[in-house]
Amino acid sequence: MHRLRYILPFLVLFISCEEEVPEQPIEVNWTKDDSYKLGRDVAANEEIKIRLFLEMHKDWELTQTGTGLRYYVYEKGEGPKPARKQTAEIEYVVSLLDGTECYKTEDDEYEELLIDQSDVETGVQEAIKLLNVGDRAKLIIPSHIGHGLLGDQDKIPPLTTLVVDIHLMGIK
User: Fold this and answer.
1) For the domain that residue 143 is a member of, what is the CATH number?
2) Which pLDDT does position 16 carry in this prediction?
3) What is the pLDDT of residue 8?
4) Is 82 exposed, middle or buried (CB count within 10 Å of its CB: 0-12, 13-18, 19+)?
5) Which residue, of 26, 83, 105, 172, has the fewest CB within 10 Å?
6) 109: three-class secondary structure by DSSP
7) Which structural domain range is residue 100 located in?
8) Furthest-apart CA pair in the chain: how many Å?
């Protein structure tokens, strides 16, 4: 036991004095084709989640645009369609596919956004231009026209499909 006390410090010194092996840089051979395949796989997985969600909402008569936005006007308005650079007055509720509510306008309030000139999701911007004043619609916004790879770094996770209930109240 006494010998261990004398040997232990030398052992620790010997181990700590071993020559450090320099780290080898990791080579990554990532190509554009790899990026394309990853994007395609992410989009395919998201599409599966959207279709499973839609199985539970068969009564939604959705129209799909070329960007992947799906929308369903469930209450028709009588007003005109908004145009680029007009200000839209909207009420909204933003949720995830699992029903988790992320954002909403306060009761009896609305938000104004300058069409095609604000930092609101591309999918919402696109949808607003498809609606008439007074319309209430459900939107399904895939991540690539929502908050994308990063989410909003608050309530919306990365690569997340959004469900938006929107009411276009007016335009200026």
Assistant:
1) 3.10.50.40
2) 57
3) 57
4) buried
5) 26
6) coil
7) 63-172
8) 95
